[in-house]
Design brief:
This protein has 71 residues and is an all-alpha fold. The chain has helices at residues 18-30, 32-49, 52-70.
Amino acid sequence: RELLDDGECGFLVAEQSAVEYASAIACVLQMSALREKYMRNGLARVTDCYSAEKNSQEYLSLYRRVIAATS
């Protein structure tokens, strides 16, 4: 799964492509509504996917599976 959803939280550009990178930057600088959308969606994604609560629950689940597999 990508860290960034293309078109929802930002742009995915080709690796090492200065032209695509510059184009994406220009786009969000010029389009305030798009910039606001990306900011809202990006914050929601980070909050949902990377919270301390979510991470601790995922580690706990992993530990339980490992213990169950080795018992």
